[in-house]
């Protein structure tokens, strides 16, 4: 398979750096092709602005989504944006690797999403009528690809449990997994999370590599998170509210996952 | 009161730009002092890296949290970081104003948080023992200040309702309101959200200004979101799981809000 790792950490000599190198080695040894977008090494511009569009005229009011759609359609995006989109199209599997900072991604990675996920590419795709609100949430440009978070967390695992004070990890990741991966069509694999990363002792590292390797060699077969596809009948139109009764006993983000279902985009095995 | 608006939009001639100017005028007319950190105008560096610490030596492995704590303690932070911290200390009310991009803040604003919310300032504050896990979630350096999101959203309000496909807006804002505002001690006011911002007609704008003005003139008296203070007895130690039974009928993020309680940091009126 073709695997893209979008990697955001400022220090190559870090736990994240080691795990990124380890992942590359494991995946290449297994016969996959790997590309890494090492955002710090690339000095990726994090800030979305008029400079992202080669033909934007300064005297014109910038409407970022519209300008993004135009530049995508006309081939006038900043070249580094088009290059990252080409990597996404190339990839069968997309991995975001990052340390959790303030309960989300580092700014440099958010800025990769803000700029690369252009209108016409990652959103505003498909028919928008009273009967259909685009190809999104399980459908779209990136449909059929698998996506996964590899993440280090400074805090303790218990704090991110179902009753933990920081909030359940799957809910904290919902804006990324559902809102960024699933929205343009990707199938989402459960995240690989290393907790208490700042307190890791050298003797704990080997077990982390072993667990990560297990996840990497099963990328093609791991059961995905069962997010509900927008256009498969679970949502009312035009409001896109989940049909009453489908939520079972869940509330909030959890209702957008089919509890005990087989995987979404994969044929039954 | 002293009011800090941290503002992130690339286009001054935008709905966000107009609302920011309107807020400044309303607040100043009401006798408040207002500072605006206009991150795009300031060309704020979004990316947290070794350049944030004046005395970091390139040959030393960068551990961002530790380096941040040291630089904060020693007065060797990049001057623009210290300047933003001083604004936070000065403020009685902190407003984040931004367009919702990919279910979170624009990267430039996330990068303001990543860099300004230093160790020793916004986290790693207070006693860390088996009996107490720091001053955070309702306590800390920014305790007593009020914080609020003013946000535009391209999508429709129904999509962000309790059953909406994008997820409930209060859950999408939890990582910001609970994880960024409440964590270092700020009291959180309900957000002011403008939906369908890309489809706004001129005749709709006046009503938005009127609703925003109502929120701005009641900043001091608006009932806050009732997030649970970490050290007030609702959480088990050392795991910081919410004590069984306190969640009522809620799950996920919602259990960290006391449902029918009076406000958190205000005296009973």
From TrEMBL, chains A, B:
Keyword list, A-Z: Oxidoreductase
Pfam families in the cross-refs: Flavodoxin_2 (PF02525)
Tagged with keyword Oxidoreductase: yes
Domain (Flavodoxin-like fold): residue spans on this chain: 1-213
Keyword Calcium: no
Homology family: Belongs to the NAD(P)H dehydrogenase (quinone) family.
Protein name: NAD(P)H-dependent oxidoreductase
Taxonomic source organism: Pendulispora rubella
